[in-house]
């Protein structure tokens, strides 16, 4: 056989392998989209945010599989997410809408820089264009659909439009008359110019309608009408469940009612094939007690823990669409302590910026999600209103006869500041309490201490009860190979299949080239 004839079957086989590989990747993406997930939003208004490698190790240690980033820069975080298996919803900031909405060339360059150059090693699944533009930045609304179209066209040019979907997050305020859900409708001033063209785009590209939905605000604005239990996914007696009089559907929680209000609004415009993706939802763990009394760690724990179980365990959809469980991104992973505004604005995070829990989540049975389940962790700290003289005596005893480890509150150490008796006592009390195995009576100190489930760690000062979490983070940071293995295992079937195909090509090549 002449040598030149060998290239024909090899070329054909290579094309076949490439085609099957693309089909397999598309099928994997479709499978991912059909399985509901809980992701987290990652903001950056944080005074002590973990560096990208440590942050990614932290995500892996918590078994977090989906993240939403508000800004594609800095690129080091996107690169650090490479080959981890973590799916990324990549944000386009509002201040970039003008460039992307008025220049297809700018959109192409944006996709090339932030997507094509990184994908598929960094698994970008969605691009969220702007944030609540129609309600918070109406002057930029005319730029929204052109930006969506040009970014999608750039993805088509890169043949990534099947794997990466483009949409834009909306505030719940675009839906009017949402309770009960069945009469809900989109704000009429937005329909013809924005919502109808947007829904046509989402339907044609099989992209989701992104919504930021906060039962917390619904409850705060309707106190006395909306029960707190209904807002926190806590069970209500059947007689107190919300019933839609038009559909007779029973609503056991505000979250499902808000989602169905969106579906009814779309149905009123004859769109039934667009799914809802909840890009933000959550509950603040702290607020001004005078004006935000329900922003506390207990309610935040209840809402987020029950939300996670609602999506990952129950998977019961909504009353209107019981077969479709929407995926959600919790707002947010870390407290953004630099955010201005009310006290609650800086206290939506599941964790502080250094990776210690802001409060305890109860997420058992969710397949390892948020693996550092801290349900059984408690701390011993100074009680409110503790007598100053008794407090000093208790501190002296704890660091003396009590043999607590007080080295971290010495000058120059991580927990020396703030240099107050109260702050030092909390650290010493917790050290003694943890040394005693959190046994009954080991957090008494003549009545000046109390047990709390809120982690008192701050900045670089890690309390003894948090050392385990801190060690887990460091262990994950030192395990880059193990972190990569997590991502590899998620894609193992496809990777092994492709590897087998490459071996097959090599064997066939050798056979054809061997002398007869």
Automatic annotation (TrEMBL):
Coiled coil: none annotated. It comes from the Eukaryota. Pfam families: Glyco_hydro_17, X8. It is an enzyme of class 3 (hydrolase). GO terms for cellular component: plasma membrane; plasmodesma; side of membrane. GO terms for biological process: carbohydrate metabolic process; defense response. It is a lipid-anchor; GPI-anchor. Residues 1-22 form the signal peptide. One of its GO terms (molecular function) is glucan endo-1,3-beta-D-glucosidase activity. It comes from Acorus gramineus. The keyword Membrane applies. The keyword Signal applies. This is glucan endo-1,3-beta-D-glucosidase. Belongs to the glycosyl hydrolase 17 family. Residues 378-463 form the X8 domain. It catalyses: Hydrolysis of (1->3)-beta-D-glucosidic linkages in (1->3)-beta-D-glucans. Keywords: Cell membrane, Disulfide bond, Glycoprotein, Glycosidase, GPI-anchor, Hydrolase, Lipoprotein, Membrane, Plant defense, Signal. Its EC number is 3.2.1.39. The lineage of its organism: Eukaryota, Viridiplantae, Streptophyta, Embryophyta, Tracheophyta. It is found in: Cell membrane. SUPFAM superfamilies: (Trans)glycosidases.
């Amino acid at each position: 056989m002449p040598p030149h004839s060998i290239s024909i079957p090899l070329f054909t086989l290579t094309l076949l392998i490439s085609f099957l590989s693309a089909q397999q990747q598309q099928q994997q993406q479709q499978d991912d989209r059909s399985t509901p997930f809980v992701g987290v939003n990652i903001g950056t208004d944080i005074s002590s945010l973990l560096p990208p490698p440590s942050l990614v190790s932290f995500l892996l240690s918590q078994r977090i599989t989906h993240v939403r980033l508000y800004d594609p820069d800095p690129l080091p975080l996107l690169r650090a997410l490479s080959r981890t298996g973590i799916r990324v919803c990549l944000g386009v900031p509002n201040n970039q809408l003008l460039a992307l909405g008025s220049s297809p060339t700018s959109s192409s360059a944006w996709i090339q820089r932030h997507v094509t150059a990184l994908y598929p090693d960094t698994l970008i699944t969605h691009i969220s264009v702007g944030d609540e533009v129609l309600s918070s930045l109406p002057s930029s609304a005319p730029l929204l659909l052109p930006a969506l179209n040009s970014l999608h066209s750039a993805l088509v040019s890169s043949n990534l439009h099947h794997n990466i979907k483009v949409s834009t997050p909306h505030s719940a305020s675009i839906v009017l008359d949402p309770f009960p859900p069945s009469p809900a409708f989109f704000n009429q001033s937005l329909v013809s110019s924005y919502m109808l063209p947007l829904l046509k785009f989402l339907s044609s590209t099989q992209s989701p309608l992104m919504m930021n939905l906060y039962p917390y605000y619904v409850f705060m604005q309707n106190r006395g009408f909306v029960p707190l239990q209904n807002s926190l996914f806590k069970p209500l007696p059947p007689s107190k469940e919300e019933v839609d009089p038009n559909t007779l559907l029973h609503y056991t929680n505000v979250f499902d009612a808000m989602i169905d209000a969106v579906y009814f609004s779309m149905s009123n415009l004859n769109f039934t094939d667009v799914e809802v993706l909840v890009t933000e939802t959550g509950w603040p763990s702290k607020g001004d007690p005078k004006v935000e009394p329900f922003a506390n760690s207990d309610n935040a724990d209840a809402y987020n823990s029950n939300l996670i179980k609602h999506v990952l365990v129950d998977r019961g959809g909504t009353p209107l669409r019981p077969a479709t469980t929407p995926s959600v991104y919790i707002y947010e992973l870390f407290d953004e302590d630099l955010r201005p505004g009310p006290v609650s604005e800086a206290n939506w995070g599941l964790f502080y910026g250094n990776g210690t829990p802001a409060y305890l989540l109860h997420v058992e049975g969710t397949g390892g999600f948020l693996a550092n389940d801290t349900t059984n962790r408690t701390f011993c700290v100074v009680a409110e209103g503790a007598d100053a003289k008794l407090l000093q005596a208790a501190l002296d005893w704890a660091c003396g006869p009590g043999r607590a480890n007080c080295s971290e509150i010495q000058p120059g150490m991580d927990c020396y500041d703030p240099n107050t008796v109260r702050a030092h006592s909390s650290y010493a009390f917790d050290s003694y309490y943890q040394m005693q195995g959190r046994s009954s009576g080991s957090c008494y100190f003549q009545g000046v201490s109390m047990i709390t489930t809120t982690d008192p760690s701050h900045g670089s000062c890690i309390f003894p009860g948090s050392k385990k979490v801190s060690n887990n983070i460091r262990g994950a940071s030192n395990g880059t190979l193990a972190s990569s293995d997590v991502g590899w295992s998620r894609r193992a079937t496809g990777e092994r299949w492709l590897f087998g195909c490459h071996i097959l090509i090599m064997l066939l090549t050798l056979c054809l080239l061997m002398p007869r």
